[in-house]
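## retry 2 of 3
previous attempt timed out at serialization; input unchanged, resubmitting
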Amino acid sequence: MNTPHIAFIGAGNMAGSIIGGLIESGHPPSLISAADPFPASLQRLREIAPINVYEDNASAAAEADVVIMAVKPQVMAEASNSIARAVRARRALLISIAAGVTITSMQARLGPDAAIVRCMPNTPALLGCGASALFANSKVSALQREQAQSVLSAVGISCWVPSEEALDAITALSGSGPAYFFLFMEAMIDAGCKLGLDRDTATAMTLQTALGAARMATESDVDLVELRRRVTSPGGTTEKALASFESAGLRNIVDNALQAAAGRAAEMAREMG
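## retry succeeded, writing output
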């Protein structure tokens, strides 16, 4: 696979994290461009690597094989219009990380033959440990699918979903998911303080426990049920706590929360569409 020229429209945190991942994986800075109306945002990207920067979108996209739309959903229409001619001329792959903006709405501006991949990353991508889901329309070639996956794999894991609608479930699960774990950790810290620990101790122990549990889950050769069983001694403290969670309906609470998030994701898509 030839190394593609990649253009970023938008120079925010997510663009910066993906660019950093690409550079770390060996992508030449000379084959990366970025556009943003704010010079300070472009300067932050230049501190990552000596990439090409522009204040207008069309210039950044002019030589691109892959264009990554890293802008807010509210400005997606204007940004798409600004790079439409370049995308059509280059037959470039467009990757959108804008939540709620459908492929149909993008094709209305880029043309019916536009090759588009919608992607839902999450904020741990800023640390190189993100989880991204991708969906490609029928115009995306096998080579372009490889290019899209290579870009997102630079900041974590990536997987393809079978339908655009499945991105609503991904939004609810992994897109919003970090906030769920943050809330649970907040609750654990507060509970630890009520048990008599000072907040610094409760915080340090909670965060390290969360990190250790996540590493065990991702690095172990057994599933989550078995990992949980190994920590849960019959008649012990863990069993008592887990029984309390189950009796309070924790699984239903989680299910209802994800259903609400997925429903809102679908609603946002209709609003943006």
